[in-house]
Amino acid sequence: MDKKHRLGTVSRSAVMLTILGAMVIPSPHVAAEDLAAPAKVLSIQSPSAAGQTAQVPAQKAAIKWKFSPSFYDQATGYSYYYATADQMISRTIYVDPEGEWHAFAEGITIHRDYNLRTPVVDRTKYGDPMEGLYSTVYDPSKKTATRGVHFAGGPDVQHGFRYVKNYYKRKDAQGKEYTASDFSLLLRTPSGVIREIERVPNRLHFKAMPDGNALAIQYSIPHKPYEISIINTETGKKKHLAYAQLDYYDAKGGRLLITLNKTVSPNAVYTLADGKQRPATEQDWKEFKSISLAEGNRIMMPESTTAPPAVLQPQDLPVTSIQHQDQILVRAAIGGRAVNLSFAFVQNGRTLFPVREIAEQTGLEVKQTKMSGKAGGTSFTMKGPGGSVSLTPTDNMMIGGQLFVGSDVLKRIGLPVQGVNWNP
pLDDT tens-digit profile of 103-112? Predict the structure, then answer.
């Protein structure tokens, strides 16, 4: 990636294994960097009437741009648009309440994430898979981008749930390799502790509830197609509500408008207080739609009056600089050093730590060897100040293609874990 298109000034090792995960500098905030500056206008020399040389701006051919709406940010009043051109270039642009147009540097895409319900920097532009562990949340009011593990279904993106898709190598009866997958369902409680609740075959969608818990909608294999549950954000326990798809949620009234997984009288109104349901009427649909619009439970789109003029040239607009920072969720004492981690989690009572982040901050050496079998077909040799260990990770040690190990492994190589503090 071109240097001017990178977020922040984080220096990265050129010889780090992709499968080990994302590096985190041991500081929650990274120095800011302007992602791009407006291009200088070329000039040519032209003789003046007095025989002296004068500067004359060069004429640039206009680019034919196409514009499409992205989202409207209520907090700032900014309307965001995608701009694409025939030359296979694209920009994200926006107009402020005063009618002034701005652009982000080429290669930076800002969109509103459906699950997190907040603007994010397009993860696919920076090497993260669409269903990966990390994402970059963008705050339009502060012009900051925070890269880390963010959660949905809670009052903010700091607490709630996160699902991460995991891929594994398998062999069939004939010895032919194929790829299998599942989802890790992670919960971060208000105290800051992150736990893996379960491994599920399909991803979930979450809606925050007034009591701090979350509505969860998931594809159900035995009761096709959907199941609605409530998940307790303190314990992670599920409470089944209905085998149905959620159409609308009236948080204040404690009601759901659902489509049942059967063809007879498929639409119903479900009351959370008593668990009862009744057939939905046309008036119910109108009422729930009205409530949804009033509560802003959708991605708001720009008004047609703010559409970019056809002659707008995004490459000539002032470029908005983004301040980049890394999120630190866990601070641990490992091998006598203070280590800042963007992520760690508890699995069956055992805390697992990201190998790459520990390697970056403690000098741990890691060698990767490709092999046939589980966990992406990879084995690892880890060398610390007190020795080395070779291991073939189990599926549970791999989250989003990244390796995690417990304190027992770290102790064997001379990096004992002396303490763990979860940031609330």
Answer: 999 888 999 9
Q: In terms of residue numbers, what domain contains 343?
A: 17-24+328-422
CB of 230 closer than 8 Å to CB of 214? yes
Q: Which residues pair with 87 in a beta bridge?
A: none
Helix (H, G, I), strand (E, B) or coil at 123: helix
Q: 270 near 242, Cβ under 8 Å?
A: yes
392 found inside a domain: yes
Average pLDDT for 350-356: 96
Three-state secondary-structure class, residue 337: strand
Instruction: Compute the distance between CA of residue 292 and CA of residue 269 in angstroms, rounded to an integer.
Output: 15
Average pLDDT over residues 356-385: 83
Residue 104 within a domain: no
Burial of residue 271 (CB within 10 Å: 0-12, 13-18, 19+) is middle
DSSP 3-state of 179: strand
Q: What is this structure's pTM?
A: 0.77
Secondary structure (H, E, C), 339-384: EEECCCEEECCEEEEEHHHHHHHHCCEEEEEECCCCCCCEEEEEEE
* Residue 98 Cα distances to 72, 77, 94, 105, 306, angstroms: 15, 10, 11, 21, 11
Q: Give the separation between CA 212 and CA 254, rounded to whole angstroms.
A: 13
Task: Please tell me the distance from the alpha carbon of residue 49 to that of residue 175, in angstroms, as a whole number.
Answer: 83
Is residue 350 in a domain? yes
Overall number of domains in the chain? 1
Element (H, E) at 412: helix 407-412
Residues 43-58, mean pLDDT to the nearest whole number: 48
Alpha carbon 250 to chain centroid distance?
26
pLDDT at 268 over 80: yes
Q: How many CB atoms lie within 10 A of CB 233?
A: 24
The 10s digit of each residue's pLDDT in 386-422 is: 999 999 888 889 898 889 999 999 999 999 999 999 9
- The helix (run of H) or strand (run of E) holding residue 271 is strand 267-271
User: 416 in a domain, yes or no?
Assistant: yes
Q: What is the DSSP string of 204-253?
A: EEEEE-TTS-EEEEEE-STT-SEEEEEE-TTT--EEEEESEEEEEEETTT
User: How many residues are recorded in the chain?
Assistant: 424
Q: What is the mean pLDDT of residues 242-249?
A: 94
